[in-house]
Design brief:
There is one protein chain. The protein is 69% helix and 0% strand. By secondary structure, it is mainly alpha-helical. The chain has two domains: 78 residues, lambda repressor-like DNA-binding domains (434 Repressor (Amino-terminal Domain)); 44 residues.
Length: 124
Amino acid sequence: MGSLDDQYLAFYKTIGERIKEIRIQKKMSQAELAEKAHLSLPVISSLENARTKIWLVTFAKVAEALEVSTDDILRLNTPSSSASFPSELAEILDGCTTSERESILKIVKQLKATFEQHKKDFTY
């Protein structure tokens, strides 16, 4: 087992690789991610290449800009947290009438619209 510094470096490297992987999957350049996260291009490059430690506020900005949950980046050996949502939603809807399902869908759509509206106002 390596030193604690080596373990931290490996962790930051893995986080940087995951940020880069997600960014590429979303067809974003480093410059686009930097702009969307309100960070500089050198910061994004440094994070992806583990040349700097990532501050919590920076991490939150990057996750928000990538539109992923922070645990999708952090949980290195765990499937995406969003993977369980379809089965949870199916359980909730099980036994609901068509009218109840339509009402639930309407509420969820409105809630999502509200979140998106307020997302613009959320600053770090």
